[in-house]
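Weekly modeling sync, notes
Attendees: S.R. (lead), two postdocs, one rotation student

Agenda item 3: backlog of single-chain predictions. S.R. asked that every request posted to the team notebook include the full sequence so nobody has to chase files. The rotation student volunteered to paste the first one in as an example of the format we agreed on. Action items at the bottom.

Example entry:
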Amino acid sequence: MAYLSYGISQGEGFIIITGEIGSGKTTLVGRLLQSLNPNEFVTAKIVTSQLDADNILKMVAASFGINIETGDKAIVITKIEQLLRNNNRAGKSTLLLIDEAQNLTTQALEELRMLSNFQEGNKALLQSFLVGQPEFRDKWANDPALEQLRQRVIATHHLLPMTIEETREYIEHRLTLVDWKGNPAFSEGGLAEIYKYSGGVPRKLNTLCTRLLLFGAIEELEEINSEVVKEVLEDMEQDNYAASASARLAQNYGTVAANGNHSISQEDLEMAKQAEENVL
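Predicted structure, as returned to the notebook:
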């Protein structure tokens, strides 16, 4: 967090955050942006899909509340520049957060780089956070067409999964926030199984621990051990199978209906029956 705060203090260029799915990238940057004084910063967020160069500019404009009634690129850029200069005159810095940046085309990234050219004297008028999955780190670092963008990168950070000890500390911290007094306790074996499943990835860890605590409350357990974790993981696997079977069945129903065929295979009927039994 301190490293990212330093990047913001520079007031220019690009700050790049990468990490695996569920590693907490968006949460980390969101927490940082929430800590900023709204009297000093204007922020906007975009969650990208496959955006081309023209559409990324329209998305930037819309994210800052700029009304775009034309597809003319020059007008869109002019309106963005006006917003940036107005914010600067009001004594505010402008920050743009782009999530899922690995989906951006090279041309779209170059358009973002061009927006970073707007200055007032020696002061940049826009600073951007680019948040993405590990493949984005390879893209911006190695794409020859992004050399000028690389020169504007002032800070990067790759979020690694937690170690087993960090996982323990994370679980205990989250529980302490809700007045946990050590009951239920997490045994060494239980923690090992939790880590084995989650790999130290916060999203997977949160999902599993929610199920564990619910199970522990229902069964009035005082300890979450390895056997408890394995049992809950089996339940989760059955739930996932049931959901997958239901989705496949629904898809097959849609296909046969579209083809005017209202029959369904015996395999699908057996799968539906098994899914229903797993849910019950």
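Discussion: group reviewed the output briefly. The CA atoms of residues 238 and 278 lie 6 Å apart.
Action items: rotation student to repeat for the remaining queue; S.R. to check formatting next week.
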